[in-house]
Every structure is written in C-alpha cells, then in structure tokens.
Amino acid sequence: MTVGVHFLSKSRSYQLFGEIYPRINTTQKVVALTFDDGPTEKVDSVLSILDAKNIKATFFLTGNSIQNRLSETKKIVLAGHEIGNHSYSHNRLIFKSYQSISEEIEKTDSLIRKAGYLQEIHFRPPHGKKLLVLPYYMKRNDRKTIMWDVAPESIPEIANDSKKLANHVIENSKNGSIILMHVMYKGRATSLESLNDIIEGLKNKGFEFKTVSEIINYENT
Ligand SMILES: [Zn+2]
User: Fold this and answer.
1) Peptide linkage before 39 cis (omega within 30 of 0)
2) Which of the residues 11, 146, 186, 192 has the least number of beta carbons within 10 Å of its own beta carbon?
3) SS3 204
4) CA 81 to ligand 1 centroid distance, Å
C-alpha cells in the first residue's frame, strides 16, 4: 500500500482520474519550455531572454507569489506567454480535503485572471505530487494536469553547471517534450544562465518552441 501510494503520488504519466501529460505524443519537432514557481524579481531577466530568442514559454505560478508581485505577473501576460496554475501555497496537495484543494486552485485562478490572463489555465501540482482528491478535482472540473519529461535540475551532478544543464536538455528533449526549469530562484542562477544555450541548441536541432496549450494540440499528430 505504501509503495502504491508513493508511486501514484509521484508518477508523471499516470493518475486515477483526469488527463495528465508528462509529454506530448507527436512526430512533430515541437517542445514546450515551462518554468515553475514565482513570479520573483527574476521576471525581467527571464522575459528578456525569451524575447531576444522570440519564443513563448509557459509559467506555472503560485497564487501567493502572484499576489505579492501582480505587476510582474502582468508583464508575463503582456509579453504573450502562457500562465499556468501551480497552487496557491505550494504545499503538497496530497492528503488534503476536496475543499482545501479547490480553494488552493480557485484562489490562484482568480489571481491569474486579475493579472489579465484570458486563456484556459492548466495546472501543475506543487512538487509534482498528486494522489486521489487532486486528480478527482481535475477530472470533475475538466482541467488538465501538466507534468514534464525533461527536468535537468533534478540531477545533482549537473544542477550547478549551466553548460551541463543545457547539454542535458538538448540531448534528452524529444518530439513533444515538456521541459521543466526553475529559473525564478536566486539559488538557480545556473538555470537562468543555461536558457540561451538550451533555446539555441534545440533550435539548431530543428525544434520549435510551443506553449503548453499549443503543444497539447499536437497530441497524436
Ligand atoms: Zn513548484
């Protein structure tokens, strides 16, 4: 039972209810760059890199950070990037009641709307954790859970070297990959530094960058 619960809570490709995407099944050369957490004081730096490379990314933001930095959130929206919901508090949403899960998600949705974002809002569970009630909420509310298949920062040997981070992403991204990075943190300066190389490297391999909503449309193409 313990093993089952642990597996379910962290599985990137399986949950009991609702649609979950660790990557997109496609033969097209498309990838999605996604950033978790924030917004923080790093927003301008991230946006200027994306702008210089002329690509759009998806930002999974937490409600409490949006509340503290509404103007930065608006900048992300105005720059044409996608905003996703990453919960309000960033606490693990396993073993939580339906009520508290809906509050976490709906409070964050309304803050995202307050920042002027009009498109469909996808969700990524904080810490990548979900079990029973969260997937059930997603299914009941017809929401998609977005995970990832490329997460270089989770590999300790390369996490603090921007070149190695970039090489890992360039070598391991496939058609339909969803790349996860945490560029919003001061402590993740290497991640921010690796962005240019990641984007250039994947472009050189012929990949196009899509937002999460865009890349979902490539499923089974
Ligand atoms: Zn997170």
Assistant:
1) yes
2) 186
3) helix
4) 18
Q: What is the CATH number of the domain that holds 150?
A: 3.20.20.370
CA angle, 80 then 85 then 89, to 5°: 130
Mean pLDDT, to the nearest integer, of 71-79?
98
- How many independent structural domains does the chain possess? 1
Ligand 1 midpoint to CA 86 (Å): 7
In a domain, 28, yes or no: yes
- The answer as to whether 221 is a domain residue is no
State which residues form the domain around 26.
Answer: 2-216
Task: Report pLDDT digits (tens) over 81-138.
Answer: 999 999 999 988 888 889 999 999 999 999 999 999 999 999 999 988 877 888 888 9
Residue 104 is predicted with a pLDDT of 95
DSSP string, 64-123: HHHHHTHHHHHHHHHTT-EEEE--SS----SS--HHHHHHHHHHHHHHHHHTT--S---B
The answer, yes or no, to whether residue 5 has pLDDT greater than 80, is no
Structure tokens at 174: 């496939």
Ligand 1 centre from 3 Cα, in Å?
Answer: 23
Taking the centre of ligand 1 as the mean of its atom positions, its distance from the CA of residue 180, in whole angstroms, is 10
pLDDT tens figures, 13-50: 777 777 889 999 999 999 999 999 999 999 999 999 99
Task: Give the whole-angstrom CA distance, residue 174 versus residue 157.
Answer: 22
Would 124 be classed as within a structural domain?
yes
User: Would you call 50 helix, strand, or coil by DSSP?
Assistant: helix
> DSSP label at 177?
B
